[in-house]
Amino acid sequence: MSGSRLFLAVDLDGDGAHPAAWRHSGRPPGSVLTPQALRASVSAAETAGFTLATFADTPVPPGDGPTPAGRIEAGTRAAFVSTTTDRIGLAPTLHVTTTEPFHLATQLASLDHASNGRAGWVVGAAGDEASLATIGATAPDAAALRREVLDVVDAARLLWDSWEDDAVIKESRTGRYLDADRVHHVDFEGATFTVKGPLITPRPPQGQVVVLAPAALDVDDRADIVLVDGPDAEDREALAFAEVEIVLGTTTAQAEERAARLDADAAWPRSRRLRHVGTPDGLVELLRSLAVTFDGVRLHPAVLATEFELLISDVLPVLADEGLFRPPAPGATLRDSLGLPRPANRFAAAS
C-alpha cells in the first residue's frame, strides 16, 4: 500500500554505507566507535525530521583490509541513544540465526521501554559459515533459513504479548507488583527451539515492536515494514520501503568522481538496491517517483559526512515544502509516526 506521505528512514551504521567511507569521513577511524559520534549522527537525523534511524550489524566484524575493522553491537547503539532522543524511531539489526529468541525479544522490549515506544527491529538472517560458526552451527538451506526467521518472529511476537497491558498493578496496600493471571506462558515450539515464557519484561509500550523485514526473506505477513530492493513495490499488506543507496555531489560529474574515488579504495558491491549517483535535485526527483508506489524509503548514504549533510540541507526541506514528507511529532511512538495501530493483546480476551 502507498499513501500521500513518504516516510524517510536512514541507516546510520559507522561512517556510511560505502566500505571505504571511514577513509573519507574527515576524522580519525577510531572516532566512529565513540558515543559522541553516535549521538551526533542520531541527533542530526532527528532534528532533520527522519522518521526512523536503523543500525546495520553482522555477527562477525565487517572484514579485513580496506573495510572497517569493527562496530559496536546494533542493539547497544540503539539503547544508548534511546534516552537522548524523543521522536525518531530506532531500529537495530538483530540476527535470528545467531541470537537466542528469548533474549532477542527481551532486548527489543527493553529498547521500546527505554525509548517510550520508538523501537523497531530490522530482521537479520545471517546464514554464512563465518557468522554461524560463532554459535557452532552450520549454514542452513533456503527453506530452513526461512523457517527459522518465521519461528523467531512468531516467538518474539508471542513473548511481547505474554504480559497483558494491565499486568503491572503496583499495589502498595497488598505489596503486589503484578497480577499473575495476566502474565502468560507462550509454549511456542519451532523447528529448532522451544520457548515457554513469559518474557521477563512487561509488554512493550507499542504493544508490538515495529518489525522491518527485507523482502528477500519472504516473510511479508510477519512484518510491519517490508524493505524492498528494486524500483517496484508489489501490493503488500505491510508498509513498503524502497532501499536506496546514494552518492551525492553538487553536479552529477562531481558525484560520479566521488564514487570513483571511493571505489578506488574499496569496491562497493552492486546489489538489487536502487543507487543514485548524482545531485540532490536528482534524488528529489527519484523520491517523488518512488512516493507513487512506496510508503517510505530507507536511505543508505555512502559517506555520512558528505551525503548526510546534503540530505539535511538540500533534500528534506524540498520534500517538506511539497508535502511529501512530515517529521514525526515529539513524544509520538514509532507506530504513531507510521500510522500503524497498536495491536491488541492476544491473551487479553482469555483472561
UniProtKB/TrEMBL annotation:
Luciferase-like domain boundaries: 22-213
Keyword set includes Flavoprotein: yes
Source domain of life: Bacteria
Keywords: Flavoprotein, FMN, Monooxygenase, Oxidoreductase
An example molecular function term from Gene Ontology annotations: oxidoreductase activity, acting on paired donors, with incorporation or reduction of molecular oxygen
Residue numbers binding FMN: T93
Similarity-based family: Belongs to the NtaA/SnaA/DszA monooxygenase family.
Protein's name according to its UniProt entry: LLM class flavin-dependent oxidoreductase
Origin organism lineage: Bacteria, Bacillati, Actinomycetota, Actinomycetes, Streptosporangiales
